[in-house]
Specification:
The protein is mainly alpha-helical. The chain contains six helices and no strands. Among the domains are: about 50 residues, no CATH class; about 35 residues.
Length: about 170
Amino acid sequence: MNPLANSTRRDGASLGAPKRSGGERSEPERSEGAPGSASLPGLRHEPSAPDPEVPEKAQRRYHTAEYKLRLLEETDVCRPGEIGAILRREGLYSSHLRTWRRQRAEGTLHGLTPKKRGRKQKTAAERRNEELEKENQKLRRRLEEAQIIIEFQKKVADLLGIPLQKPENEAK
């Protein structure tokens, strides 16, 4: 066992610890504005924490063609380094500018307008065609059922010996 390990000097520092000069401290001094200190008794300055609630569903951002053109014109006259500040201010990415510039170069102002998401609306002719196809399928199924019933009736009549009259259009 080391006899110096638990011994202390007269000034209270242990012998094994490094020496410190009078001005050094292990903790930085707190300023008056630090949390926990108050300028007026009873008042504490607490930083406002962001709201921890998460919205149920994120809102999709849409940019109009006028907004996109205005932003492209603004960034076209910028010096190097200023574009990043504009993008941060507007909450955009450089890929937005790249896409919008390409669309502008193609001459597609229509491409700068936001596209409607979801299923495309059907025209009246397409809706009518779909209705007629469903009706056609339904009638085909009913016809098949009717033909099965007629065949069954013919077999029953034949087994019972009941003569059936042939329709006029079949006789010819």
